[in-house]
């Protein structure tokens, strides 16, 4: 059966057709190793993701490797694939991925886990590692969620912990050295520092997260695939640095991407020029965890604007921190195109902001608003979290109060010709994550999430304030899996067999089926998401060494209960431990 | 104004009209063609397509027009664009615009409908009226294919029916060949291909 026969019957055929600009098309007989890079979600999400672009490029730079993209099909496509026994295929060659050497998943969020199982099944492979034979592809996984690999340990042959630019090629080399002998390959790979083969690994030996010492020395793509159908982020992403100097106590990214490493503006400008020429995109987004901590941001912004303005290229700068948000920079950005402003105070009161180590003061917030409002921006989006450790009702009411005072502040400025202010509160629920100071904290139960959401909703009286939030059930599931152990494998398989897929999508998420599966497997929320883990208990992710030490995390966790902040890495080294895996020469943020 | 004639085939048929506009805008940028931009807050290039082609239909002689800010030989523009278009899109010709896209009144399509025969089509078309539902901006509307189809020709092939349809096309009146084929072969697993061959003006002359 040809793919064409299915394509006209689905809503988004361009998600499965391939043929986009800048794809890697090779002769399968001329390559030694075929790699299926799987993003366990829909095409438009996958094609917005930077990591897949970087690794696709690195693998395909080698003539002996052919890396192809594979995405989760939408339910309409899946139904046809199952009906006609059409196995999951690589977008470039349309060949079934069960014949590839590697199937590699990137694990970006817990709610994509059922898609991993579903994709293996659609490929025609058993979902469990132990049921797959020697002849079947090696199934590997990387990405931020692998810092706790246990919930997926039954399904993935090998986890590669940390940054993949170098290790992926080393793994392919090892594979070629082993002449495609999977057993031998896995045995030898498990001995590598950053690799974890759950079936073989001795848990007393820590797996150490791999980091790239000099980001300027690893290749960055000079061309990007330009999707035929619109992706969610359809633009050039330029990663300007990795790691974060801030130690927000809830934030996993801020801990597991340490140390702080910046790229050189000159090198990036060269890349950006090539990327603009090879893609024709009219927007560049600078990617990092906190753009304004980039030391040379003013110079780099000038270089960028000199290039972008005459070419009508829009510059997006997400993750600007509220406290060092610069008026000058805003004016410069507005010269290209203006868009609304987003800030993330995360908590409604100074007390709680101190407890979570979000070093932002009320003055910072109002100063940023003043700059935004007087600069002609009248819409502000604020990110907050509920359920943070030590949170009380007072903190929640503080969110409404802060938003209201921002509205009042706008009118007090008496801006001429203003169209009226709009403040949007985007509310998420705290999920405890491994390798954060809050990794031992319980998540509030579902009913409590609902009560706190309602409390905030009722406290908002102004029509200038809009409140957005998610129902809360997905956060609970996220909470279970983020700190899960190997027992969750059975739950995952059970839920998937009941029909749970695409859990990150409201229209597909089936909490009823998840509840059923949990009952059948004897898994209770209160044993995972809802439980306070003990400082001295063995944690499922203790087999991984992410760089940050447990003693540092405990120290920070205790400071939270004293509402005490900690300095950031530029101000003072807190001895988080990351130097142990990268050396002092790399971790030197000043 | 410069008019480009292009084809849209292969994997490019799965691009919607909006996708195609985005794609061509980026291709013009990559090809460094001096496209003129509109004035105003949100400038965009002067880029106009002749009758939009629905997703799934192959186009053999499609057109778009641009304005430029400086001279560039037509042949060079064509070559530059062809060097940077994705699979399935190809510029066939570039020249000075001679006619207005609004002159387009109808188009000729060639369809292949698997498993169907001339006899099936004749039976279908012999009905007094062939009402079908059409989605419009105002909601669902009933149209009579019998009176809307301007002309047809059918031949039997080895695997199915080969059907040529002459249908209204353009700003004033438009009938999608997909609507015709879905009414004729409503089965969920029906397989067909559709290709737009050429446009005509109100006098029936080739556009």
Describe this entry's structure for a reader:
The complex is a heterodimer of chains A (about 600) and B (about 210). With about 600 residues, chain A is an alpha/beta fold. Chain A has helices at about 5, 45, 50-60, 75-85, 115-120, 165-175, 180-190, 255, 265-280, 295-310, 325-335, 350-355, 360-375, 395-410, 445-460, 475-480, 490-500, 510-520, 550-560, 580; strands at about 35-40, 65-70, 100-105, 140, 160, 195, 205-210, 235-240, 240, 260, 285, 315, 340-345, 380-385, 420-430, 465-470, 545. Chain A has a six-stranded mixed sheet, covered by helices on one side. A four-stranded parallel sheet of chain A has the order 13-14-15-16. In chain A, β11, α10 (about 295-310) and β12 (about 315) form a beta-alpha-beta unit. In chain A, α3 (about 50-60) crosses α6 (about 165-175). The longest helix of chain A is centred in the last third of the chain and has 20 residues, at about 395-410. The model of chain A has no long low-confidence stretch (mean pLDDT about 95). Chain B is α+β, with helices and mostly antiparallel strands. In chain B, the strands form two sheets. In chain B, strands 1, 2, 3, 4, 5, 8, 9 and 10 form an eight-stranded mixed sheet that branches. In chain B, β8 and β9 form a beta hairpin. Chain B is elongated and about 55 Å long. The mean pLDDT of chain B is about 95. At the A-B interface, α9 of A face α1 of B.
CATH topology of the domain at 4-208 in chain A, by name, is Rossmann fold
Spatial extent as radius of gyration of chain B: 19 Å
Q: Based on helices, strands and strand pairing, what is the structural class of chain A? A: alpha/beta
User: Are there runs of chain A of 5+ residues with pLDDT below 50, and where?
Assistant: none
Task: Tell me which CATH architecture of the largest domain in chain B applies here.
Answer: 2-Layer Sandwich
Task: Enumerate the strands of the largest sheet of chain A in spatial order, edge to edge or round the barrel.
Answer: 2-1-3-4-5-6
**CATH homology group of the domain at 4-208 in chain A:** Cobalamin-binding domain
Q: Note the gap between the termini of chain A.
A: 60 Å
Regions with little confidence, pLDDT below 50 for 5+ residues of chain B:
none
* Helix fraction of chain B by DSSP (H/I, runs of at least 4): 10-25%
**Overall pLDDT level of chain B:** 95
Give the oligomer, counting copies of the same chain as homo and different chains as hetero.
Answer: heterodimer
What spatial form of chain B do the alpha-carbon principal axes imply? elongated
Instruction: Give the largest interface.
Output: A-B, 25 and 29 residues
Give the percentage of residues in beta strands of chain B: 35-45%
């Amino acid at each position: 059966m040809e793919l064409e026969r299915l394509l006209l019957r689905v809503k988004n055929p361009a998600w499965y057709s391939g043929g986009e600009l800048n794809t890697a098309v090779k002769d399968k007989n001329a390559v030694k190793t075929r790699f299926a890079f799987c993003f366990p979600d829909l095409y438009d999400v996958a094609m917005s993701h930077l990591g897949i672009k970087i690794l696709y490029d690195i693998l395909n730079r080698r003539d002996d490797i052919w890396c192809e993209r594979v995405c989760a099909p939408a339910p309409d496509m899946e139904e046809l694939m199952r009906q006609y026994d059409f196995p999951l295929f690589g977008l470039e060659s349309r060949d079934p991925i069960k014949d590839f050497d590697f199937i590699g998943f990137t694990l970006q969020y817990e709610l994509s886990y059922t898609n991993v199982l579903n994709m293996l099944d659609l490929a025609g492979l058993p979902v469990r590692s132990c049921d797959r034979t020697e002849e079947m592809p090696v199934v590997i996984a990387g990405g931020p969620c692998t810092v706790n690999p246990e919930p997926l340990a039954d399904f993935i042959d090998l986890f590669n912990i940390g940054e993949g630019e170098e290790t992926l090629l080393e793994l392919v080399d090892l594979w070629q050295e082993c002449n495609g002998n999977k057993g031998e390959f896995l045995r030898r790979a498990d001995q590598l520092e950053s690799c974890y083969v759950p079936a073989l690994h001795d848990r007393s030996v820590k797996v150490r997260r791999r980091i790239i010492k000099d980001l300027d020395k690893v290749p960055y793509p000079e061309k990007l695939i330009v999707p035929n159908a619109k992706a969610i982020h359809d633009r050039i992403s330029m990663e300007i640095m990795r790691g974060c100097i801030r130690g927000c106590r809830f934030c996993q990214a801020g801990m597991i991407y340490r140390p702080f490493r910046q790229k050189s503006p000159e090198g990036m400008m060269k890349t950006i020029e090539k990327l603009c020429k090879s893609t024709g995109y009219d927007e560049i987004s600078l990617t990092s965890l906190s753009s304004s901590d980039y030391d040379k941001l003013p110079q780099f912004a000038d270089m960028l604007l000199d290039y972008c303005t005459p070419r009508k290229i829009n510059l997006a700068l997400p993750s600007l921190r509220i406290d060092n948000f610069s008026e000058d920079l805003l004016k410069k950005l507005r010269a290209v195109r203006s868009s609304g402003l987003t800030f993330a105070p995360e908590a409604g009161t100074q007390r709680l902001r101190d407890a979570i180590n979000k070093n932002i003061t009320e003055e910072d917030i109002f100063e940023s608003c003043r700059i935004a409002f007087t600069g002609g921006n009248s819409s502000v989006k604020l990110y907050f979290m509920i359920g943070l450790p030590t949170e009380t009702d007072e903190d929640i009411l503080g969110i409404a109060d802060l938003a209201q005072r921002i509205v009042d502040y706008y009118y007090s400025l008496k801006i001429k010709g203003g169209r009226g202010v709009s403040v949007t509160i985007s509310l998420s629920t705290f999920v405890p994550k491994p390798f954060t100071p809050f990794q031992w904290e319980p998540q509030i139960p579902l009913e409590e999430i609902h009560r706190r959401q309602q409390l905030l909703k009722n406290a908002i009286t102004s029509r200038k304030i809009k409140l957005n939030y998610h129902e809360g059930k997905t956060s609970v599931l996220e909470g279970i899996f983020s700190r899960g152990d190997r027992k969750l494998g059975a739950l995952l398989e059970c839920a998937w067999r009941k029909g749970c897929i695409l859990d990150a999508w409201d229209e597909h998420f089936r909490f009823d089926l998840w509840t059923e599966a949990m009952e059948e497997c004897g898994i209770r929320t209160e044993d995972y998401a809802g439980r306070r883990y003990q400082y001295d208990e063995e944690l499922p992710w203790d087999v991984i060494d992410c760089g940050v030490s447990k003693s540092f995390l405990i120290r920070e966790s205790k400071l939270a209960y004293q509402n005490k902040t900690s300095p950031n890495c530029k101000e003072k080294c807190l001895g988080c431990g990351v130097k142990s895996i990268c050396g002092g020469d790399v971790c030197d943020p000043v | 104004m410069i008019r480009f004639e292009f084809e849209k085939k292969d994997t490019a048929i799965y691009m919607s009209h909006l996708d195609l506009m985005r794609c061509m805008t980026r291709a013009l940028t990559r090809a460094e063609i001096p496209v003129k931009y509109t004035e105003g807050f949100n400038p965009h290039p002067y880029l106009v397509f002749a009758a939009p082609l629905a997703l799934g239909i192959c186009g053999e002689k499609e057109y778009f027009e641009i304005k430029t800010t400086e001279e560039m030989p037509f042949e060079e523009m064509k070559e530059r664009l062809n060097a940077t278009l994705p699979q399935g899109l190809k510029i066939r010709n570039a020249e000075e615009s001679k006619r207005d896209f609004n002159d387009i009144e109808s188009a000729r399509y060639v369809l292949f409908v698997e498993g169907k025969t001339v006899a099936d089509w004749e039976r279908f078309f012999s009905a007094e009226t062939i009402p079908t539902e059409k989605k419009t901006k105002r909601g669902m509307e009933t149209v009579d294919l019998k009176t809307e189809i301007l002309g047809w020709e059918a031949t039997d092939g080895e695997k199915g029916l080969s059907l040529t349809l002459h249908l209204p096309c353009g700003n004033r009146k438009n009938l999608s060949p997909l609507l015709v084929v879905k009414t004729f072969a409503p089965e969920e697993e029906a397989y067909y291909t559709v290709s737009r061959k050429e446009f005509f003006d109100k006098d029936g002359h080739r556009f």
